[in-house]
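Tutorial, part two.
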Amino acid sequence: MDYIIYIVLAVLGVIFFVAQGFTKRRTRDRKSRRFMEDYKREDRSKSDDQG
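Running the prediction step on this input gives:
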């Protein structure tokens, strides 16, 4: 029973490091070319002519 605080802190530490891993992977994916591969930009000259 004396080690409950250490167990809780260890679990919180593991959750923290897992969250950091997901955040780092998401940032890396955002920076890659693959992230914007299928993005099609709207032609601004068409929207300026219409409005």
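DSSP finds two helices and no strands in the chain. In part three we will examine how such features are distributed along the chain.
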